[in-house]
Batch of 2 targets.
Target 1
Amino acid sequence: MRVSVFGLGYVGSVTAACLADAGHEVVGVDVNPEKVAIINAGDPPVVEPGLGELLAQVVKSGRLKATTSTTNAVRDTDLALICVGTPSGANGELDVSFIRRVGEEIGSVLGGSERVYTVVLRSTVLPGTAEQVLLGALCSASGREPGARLRVAVNPEFMREGSSLRDFQSPPLTLVGCADAETPELLRALYFCVDAPFVSTTIRTAEMVKYVGNAFHAVKVCFANEIADLCTSLDVGAQEVMRIFRMDRTLNVSDSYLRPGFAFGGSCLPKDLRALLYAARRTDVAVPLLSSVIPSNEGQVRRAVDAVLQTRKRRIGVVGLAFKSGTDDLRESPLVSLIETLIGKGLDVRILDGNVSLARLVGANRRYIEEEIPHISSLMCDGVEALLAHADVVVIGNGGEEAELALAGCRPSQVVIDLTRGAVRFAASG
Ligand SMILES: NC(=O)c1ccc[n+]([C@@H]2O[C@H](COP(=O)([O-])OP(=O)(O)OC[C@H]3O[C@@H](n4cnc5c(N)ncnc54)[C@H](O)[C@@H]3O)[C@@H](O)[C@H]2O)c1
């Protein structure tokens, strides 16, 4: 394929060299003539293991050449990969001016022509940037409408400086966000040399996934370091603790606990987190990340309370009372907190949770229900019909069969607040 790569920094120079190595005909573009000259001499513009050798080879073979001319680059290619910088402002705001600029430059070259051109954004940008900034600039400079002849896609990369050549060949996935059916096929062909699952999604999702990854990596680093500080203060070897922690690929390093939904609760997570925070306070260890977890969790309950209050309706039906579906355990259930707050605000609440209803009659939780939450226990309904007959607002607190039945039986006039954030519907449909 004939590809141009705009921005020959870390990402662009590695991308250009690797694509040329795979056999594509690549034109690298940069506004900095020194970088262009360095690449054309077969030298690396950045320090990256293996890049020097690879560049020397692909430049010599003629498959990669660099230029400062957008006109030549667009004329000689069918697809552009945008790898320009997106630096941070003093207030954290993303500077997208380089992206806008490239969009205008490419757009003005495309202006007088009818040819199909695909512009793929590889830089890290917030959701909306590709459509508003890049596509906006391309369209206004070219006078074209977005569509068949002018396609835009987002293709974030997952390379790490220091191992980016290896990461280019074997990324965790090849992610493409676009709005048409042809572009994923084009990018499959571009990345035929890359050994990774190919994931096609919407433009905004692809933009966001990159940020989620980096935010998670940052959280993981700080988590491991705070745990290490705690380990040291408790006279435990941090490396050994984390080595064993990482061995658990079912609950720890896994997709468990990473599904959006409602707040956590139960008999373990809140209690054990509090014990760790107390140990940190006693030993004067600062753990700002761990300390922020319970306030963050409480924020989820407040968010649910606000969502119910905003409906301005009084008759509320909540599906789920236990801290998660499939259990009758009410200890530190965030749904109990939510319901107590709603009752305190004067709302008329009814609750459906078959497991808790059963526990009210028999089982180990009977005493807890009778002694700790009698005011809530008396609000239990004995079936979906009774809950739906009462409620103007249906709050789905836990997933499961009762939630599915409630959703299926809702009247159009009833407001549904799904605290599982769609998980119950996904479960129902898939
Ligand atoms: N560095 C990394 O490891 C890494 C990893 C993942 C994602 N990213 C993202 O990729 C993007 C690029 O990062 P980078 O580290 O390669 O940036 P960089 O600053 O090293 O390189 C950007 C290049 O773009 C050039 N440029 C600016 N305006 C241009 C224009 N109008 N036309 C052509 N070239 C232009 C600059 O001269 C520079 O050489 C950023 O959005 C970054 O967040 C970087």
Target 2
Amino acid sequence: MKTLFACLKEAEGKGVALGHFNVSDLVALWAVARAAKETGLPVMVGVSEGEREFMGVKEIRALVSTIREDLGIDIFLNADHTHALQKVEEAARAGFDEILFDGSKLSFEENLRETKKAVEAIKNINPDILVEGELGFIGASSEIVAERPAAVLTDPDQALEFIKETGIDILAPAVGNMHGMLASMVSGEEKIRLHIDRIKELKQKTGSFLTLHGGSGTDDEDFKKAIKAGVNIVHISTEIRLEWRSGIEEALKGHPAEIAPYKLFPEASEKIMRVAANRLRLFNNL
Ligand SMILES: [Zn+2]
């Protein structure tokens, strides 16, 4: 089994990206794992503070580790969007593969200071855990949102200073991406378009691993160009949640008298699996 660092290096060498999918239950977790198994590709599973509070921090770690062994897949666990130092330390002690400290709502100086503290705390507990920092705001909700967050692109010079000062391993920039989807994106009328030149500039200036957050609803060609320009991880959450909901709604409608959860959930799992597998293939040029 490879480490996350080794998989990222390999992806960078091949000009492809790791798919990262958020989960908050076993339905989505198994679907993502099966997508990785079916495609033969490495995958990342992410749990935000809210998602891991629901699943249990140690519990999600144990589940992902067991699935990794049982299916023989390179599946990694990320503590997504972590804001409190105490939550950072909790995830580090539980043995997450990656932790994202999210100070993107803070001023540049505060974000730098707080991210540096998080990096020190994590590396103190386990130096092998990769730490991601976020610079530039892209909205905070992976739901259907009413408007786009104000677009402020990450500045390459600031990014370089941020990476050097904090010691992060991975940077999450704002490059036209957004968290959540507009209703027009859910219906497919509108796609998110990315600032490919800015991704190139960030990569050239920093040489850092880059994560594209808020990938749901992004134009397929822009994904390919962004990965070619230097994106190493792509996050998909809202699309997974939409499939989860529509799968459960269809199952309830189709089987109005059914009360056994394990007979109702497979439709949602199947739908999530298909989306995750398609996204993984796209991010890996397959
Ligand atoms: Zn995100």
